[in-house]
Amino acid sequence: MDIRQLECFVAVAEELHFRRAGERLGLSQSALSERVAALEYEIGAPLFFRTTRQVSLTQVGAVFLGDAKRILNDVETSLSKAKHNVGAALKNIRVSGVDEAISMILPRALLEFRKTNPDVHVQVLEISSSDKHTQELVNHRTDIAFVRTPPDDEYITSELLQRQEVMVVLSNSNPLSKAKSLKTTDLVDEAFVGYPKHARPILHNMLWHNFRKIGVQPKVTCEIIDKSTMLQFVINGLGIALTPAWVKSIAPKGVSFVPFDADDEKIELYVAYRKASNSPTIEDFLKAVKVVI
Description:
Elements: H1 3-15, H2 18-25, H3 29-43, E1 48-50, E2 55-57, H4 59-85, E3 92-97, H5 99-113, E4 121-126, H6 130-138, E5 144-147, E6 156-171, E7 191-194, H7 201-213, E8 219-223, H8 227-235, E9 241-244, E10 255-259, E11 266-274, H9 280-292
Parallel strand pairs: 3-4, 3-5, 7-8
Antiparallel strand pairs: 1-2, 5-11, 6-9, 6-10, 6-11
């Protein structure tokens, strides 16, 4: 069943004449009859009595007419509201993002955003994987997403916010913590606290890719998703880890951060949003983000 079939049914029910109903809808009489017949087939009962001289509603058709008109009216009302709200300010926006954005950027961005939009409610969704954030945008379950890689989707656009160094985080008791920088070859004998690929694909791939380049497999003793948990594992001597530079701001005493020297590899952060999201509320939020970066 589709909207056009309902329109055809209502037109015939009101005109009680297939030719006039077809003229009203700009359809041939045969095309109109086919759509009404398809609707009757789906319902499983005739909607009209047809003779060579007249057309009239069956009992099923008479009952269904009220529902069909209500459905069409609801669709028209919904479309009207949607057109009216294009470009209108939103009272609620949904923001999702990787951990750095949610913990380090979003609080400052919200303070800036509320200077111009004090009454807008912001819902925050925390997910570790950029791919999932992109899917949330595509599915209209979030409005703005902070992601590590630019989404490859024709309906989504993104802007690069920053690039930052990758660091090796080590316990202060590790002799390598005094180094000015560390190459992969410096780390072959070290145990690693790694990351599962599904949750932290960039750091996971960076570790394994750089070790493969020197023909060695990293000694990954365990895999952790949460950065705070990873820091506790490192501080207790369970291994070292790769991490973005921003993690220094949440690190406890007892760990050191040394730049990872690996072909100038950087961790990027993008803000992504739907191309059709032309609400001034979304635009104000994006401006606030750029102010605090």
